[in-house]
Specification:
Pfam families: MPAB_Lcp_cat (PF09995). There is one protein chain. By secondary structure, the chain is mainly alpha-helical. The protein has one domain (39-285). 64% of the residues lie in helices and 2% in strands. The chain has helices at residues 3-24, 28-37, 49-54, 59-70, 74-83, 90-106, 109-125, 141-162, 169-186, 195-205, 213-224, 233-246, 251-254, 263-282, and strands at residues 127-129, 135-137. Strands 1-2 form a two-stranded antiparallel ribbon.
Length: 305
Amino acid sequence: MDRWPARGRQVRERLGSTLFSRVAGPSGPANRARIHTTPGPRWFGPERPIRTVHADASMFVGGLSALLLQSLHPLAMAAVAAHSGFRGDPWGRLQRTSTFLAVTTYGTAQDAQLAVDRVRAVHQAVRGTTAAGEHYHAADPHLLGWVHAAEVDCFLRAHQRFGEHPLDGAGYDAYVADTARVGTALGVLDPPRDRAALTALLSEYRPELRATPEALEAARFILRRPPLTGFARAPYMLLGANAVALLPPWAPALLGLHPAAGAAAACVLLSGHALIRTIRWAMPPPPESPADQGTSLPRPGPHMS
């Protein structure tokens, strides 16, 4: 009879290892150990909402949704299409992004600042002109503001819908305030610090948004041509369907997407909950480390970096 629990553990460990290697890459175990066990002050203490949200498996849906929403700004999408190499190395881009989120959320303040400095250096070099003759620069605070707002909104929506322990209104406002620290460090000018400000900022960007050919191609790549084969494609497609359903109501139509409706929408949502629970079961959060006993640094004001 003991063989069944043992087999269950084996399945869990195998699935968790596969998911973690995809998301974190070959350096994932070493990075995780460094991020969580290196002593020193953090930008965010263990009680902060940003840690609750970013540790949850709902980020799998939120991340896909954020990529779709971010693609709707033509200048931001042009920069990604020309410089990110997401088609040629999608897993590498995912791994770099997940490592950045982990370092800035859980790592020491020194490592978080180093990670931000590296990203800002990359942004300085990313500039060009769209097919329509519009100039873009990845370090433009206005573009950074859109990328930041879209990402935060999608992560928040995903946690509200799929999070194991959803926060109350004050908790989600505090989450937005936490993310403002990272946004400010990256060069965003006066990022939103509560949900009302976040909603208002997204509305301000609406007139600038449209689906360029690059955005439509990115959506097809993300949703219909993922770099996966065999069994892995089915759960990924479920993640994608839930990522589309998570978008603001006005966004899918711009990308030519049609979220499920009626009974089909209920099935998509139920499957999403089941899939996120499975991911959560396979990838438990790291245990609390002695480093978490340290104190977080004071949060900067609107124009501190």
